[in-house]
## 1
Amino acid sequence: MGFNKFFKGATEIGRAMGVTLKHLTQKPITVEYPASPVPLYPRFRGKHELRRYENGMERCIGCMLCEAACPTAAIYVEAEENDPNHPTSPGERYAKVYEVNLLRCVFCGDCEEACPVEAIVLGSEFAMANYNRRDFILTKQQLLNPGEPNVVIRPE
Ligand code: SF4
Ligand code: SF4
């Protein structure tokens, strides 16, 4: 009886050590973040971005559909008529104020789907830690990305 228990215990330890030895020879699955980039899935939804057209014009036409679609009231839009001589967007109106409250956002992507001109998109930025609650409210200037007019939209 005692020998059987000893034998069973030794077998289990041997099996567990086998698993350890097997993983010793494999590449680690952990990543040295932030020194190494973290691989993201193509449909990952991160920090919002407001897109522009190639000519620099803002896509957003201030229709507020994203604000209405947001289930957590995380978006605030104030629209204003475009100056016909110097329009900000191709529509009649543009977003004078556009804010996203990251403390409310659940990253559902409903705003992205509601937008008729693909102006608001959820990008790939995920490092959004901050020290101050006010800094979690993204302003229009923070959301607009002048350097990247064609932020890639996630594949369906
Ligand atoms: S991703 Fe969802 S919760 Fe976040 S702002 Fe857009 S609609 Fe609102
Ligand atoms: S981001 Fe799109 S849905 Fe939201 S106000 Fe601008 S145009 Fe309308």
## 2
Amino acid sequence: MACQAAIFPIVLDNNGIPLYHGRQRRLASRSQRRALKTMYQTCAIPGCTVNSRYCEPHHILYWRNQGNTDLDNLLPLCTRHHHNVHEGGWKLALTTNRTLTITYPDGTTQTTGPPGRRKAAA
Ligand SMILES: [Zn+2]
Ligand SMILES: [Zn+2]
């Protein structure tokens, strides 16, 4: 897994919740995890029913490729789909409204709309 490491909380949102860490930290914070769970009931992959509480925050743009630990760059993935992304060649793209496009290794793509979001991250 490519999503692990050290801890330097920094930027606060207007509720005082740190959601944008940029390059300050690599691991999603507790608040970011909570915000993801609020936005997503399940793993972000369409049709997957794994509860988001068992998912891991994934960096859409990989940390090693200068991806930021910002909520906009994080997506909850279950272990299986996390594995598919990191080792199975699935490519993910997320727009600012959280429309997710998945490109599978055979070149086919699937797009899913934003998750039904409760009021969480601004
Ligand atoms: Zn990951
Ligand atoms: Zn999944």
